[in-house]
Amino acid sequence: MLNKQSKLQEIKDEIDLLKKKKTDLLVKVRKAEFWIEEHKEEYYSVLNRHNENRRILKGIINHKNYPFIVRFIAGMRMFFKNPIKFFTIGLVYKKGLIEEYWAFKNIKKEWEDDFNFTEKMIDKDYKLIEQTEKWIKNVETMIEKGDIQYD
Question: Is the whole model's pTM more than 0.70, yes or no?
Answer without folding.
Answer: no
